[in-house]
Amino acid sequence: MPQITLTTLNARYIHASMGLRYIYANMGDLQAVTKLIEFNINGRIIDIAESLLQDKPEIIGIGVYIWNATETLELVKLLKTISPETTIVLGGPEVSYEFEKQELVSWVDFVITGQADLAFKELCSNLNQNRKPVNKIIHPQAVELSEIQLPYAYYNDEDVANRVIYVEASRGCPFKCEFCLSSLDKTVYPFDLDVFLNEMDTLYKRGVRHFKFVDRTFNLKVDTSIRIMDFFLNKMDAVNSENLFLHFELIPDHLPEKLKSTIAKFPQGSLQFEIGIQSLNPEVQTIISRKQNTQKVKDNLSWIREHSHAHIHADLIIGLPGESIDSFAKGLNQLYSYNPHEIQVGILKRLKGTPIIRHTQEYDMRFNPLPPFNIVSNKLISFNDMQRLSRFARYWDLIVNSGRFKNTKELILSENAFYNFLNLSDWIFSTSNQTHKISLERLYSLLYNGMIQTLEFDTDLVSSALLSDFEVSGIKGRPKFLDVLGGDSDARKIKSSQRQIRHSGL
To answer: Is 386 helix (H, G, I), strand (E, B) or coil?
Structure first.
């Protein structure tokens, strides 16, 4: 029997590959000779190769994604140099489409496109019986979800204790948003709900308290959504249910009353909704085949914010065809007015196989040829402006989404949120020439100077907001930006004004 290794390079240790565990769960009589081992992209490639070849596997299956494509190419080249006789099989979204021109594909023996849950085992069985496939690229036939063994038993105790546990009650998506790989799906395919909930019960009993659902449209079938949520609500009534946290992706304009009633039952800190807005420009929505009722989006986000304890993580994308800077600015300001807890600002990426490529010529869309294949310019946004917007997104994460600057961010975004923050972002970069590895203390000083010099905020307002945030930052010692203020006497004045504001009820 061949020795088989399943592996991938995760973005971070905390991530656990659900895809590998699906394949391992479906190895059948080959499971006994199959090993599952994960790494992350920060590891030294030569050390990863040494670890993989230590047991002298005959077959290595590697999951390839947008975040690990570069590192996987380096790994595969090294593996084939050291052990050319080892059969290497690739799978995953990064090699399932447009594989003809990929250097990575040229180095390996086989590629399985699409869902490899059963196909990898079949390939290994054929190779074991000297039935080598004629074609290097293997396109598996579609299988019923009922034929697939679920992966959840193969999250081990270390995973349960330290890592995010990914689960899915369904696969597929009925929508055709052209920037997303799910646009290639024809419909949604649900797993047997009784079987799925039984698996969730087992995970819960093993100690899992953080469940991240990867379903693209969790609230598409409301009765199913309610049954799943009721299952977890019942757990919250049980002993030792503390810290239960659920993450769902929601369709933003589909929130019927009976689902609202269930959502309202969840306590503080137990529920997070990832809501993909992407663009609030109706013309852009039409271009990318995205159907979205903006008024319902507004009403539903407002309801969640005002009548539930759920945390709202809303997404917007920079660089969509037809979206100018002013258009994106309007959308961000509009979304900010809906008051979600968090707005994730992302840069458009050209995922292989997605229909977004059909707009390349008309909108002069130019993408980085290397991972993560981010857009670098288009008809409406120049390269220099796209660079500015990329820095905007990075600083937005550091300042607005970090949770460290609650009072400061409200001041920055209090009027014309997008352009205020863009101007601040431009100033921070021109001053520091950094987007990464900025110490927290340094960031406080940059914010102080930038808000006064560029946004022309009142010194006392800026100082008061920053000091309020600094007091709960966990940083020990005197804040360095006070040196700019002129010493402790100014700090005492600012703290006195803070107390006056709080006592006045403002």
So the answer is: helix
> Which residue spans of the chain are classified as CATH 3.40.50.280?
4-141
- Tokens 């014309």 found at: 416
Q: Look at the pTM and tell me if it is higher than 0.70.
A: yes
Burial of 356: CB neighbours in 10 Å, binned 0-12, 13-18, 19+: buried
Residues forming beta bridges with residue 313, ordered by sequence position: 274, 342
* CA–CA distance, 154 with 159 (Å, rounded to integer): 9
Architecture (CATH level 2) of domain 4-141 = 3-Layer(aba) Sandwich (3.40)
- Residue 422's contacts (CB-CB under 8 Å, 6 or more residues apart) are 329, 388, 389, 392
Distance CA 435, CA 154 (A): 38
pLDDT tens for 366-420 read 999 999 999 999 999 999 999 999 999 999 999 999 999 999 999 999 989 999 9
DSSP, res 268: T
- Fold designation for 164-381: pyruvate-formate lyase- activating enzyme (3.80.30)
Tell me how far apart the alpha carbons of residues 315 and 306 are, in angstroms, rounded to a whole number: 20
Q: At what angle do helices 325-337 and 417-432 cross, to 10 degrees?
A: 120
